[in-house]
Design brief:
This protein has about 110 residues and is α+β, with helices and mostly antiparallel strands.
Length: about 110
């Protein structure tokens, strides 16, 4: 493992220095597949936009007990990294969603 490269990326994140697209890919995409930051991976959240070829993806990493997010877009052919990492905190929200469902009508309730 290239700990020097990993340390350099961490230092750049901490001081707010711009990360290259290669460094962002290492953080956001490669961490899912045993990259330098695989041990730092907390979560990957993907949301598909309606009528879009892209999935909006957020990779959450734990770096020195601080959570960082990297937003990026992914399609079948490319990955787009335009955002720099930013600090986040985990929150829990209760979301109520109404989903259509159907239940059986017993013969005594239905039409004859």
């Amino acid at each position: 493992m290239n700990t020097g490269k990993k340390s350099k990326i961490i230092e750049k994140i901490k001081i707010g220095q711009y990360l290259s697209e290669v460094e962002l890919e290492e953080l956001a995409y490669c961490s899912k597949y045993a990259g330098l930051f695989a041990n730092n991976l907390v979560d990957v959240v993907s949301r598909k936009e309606e009528n879009s070829i892209y999935k909006n993806t957020t990779t959450i990493l734990n770096i020195d007990n601080e959570l960082y997010a990297v937003d990026w877009k992914e399609s079948l052919k490319e990955k787009v990294f335009k955002e720099q990492p930013y600090r986040v905190r985990k929150v829990e929200r209760i979301i109520e969603i109404a989903v259509p469902d159907y239940e059986r009508i017993e013969s005594s309730e239905g039409t004859k």
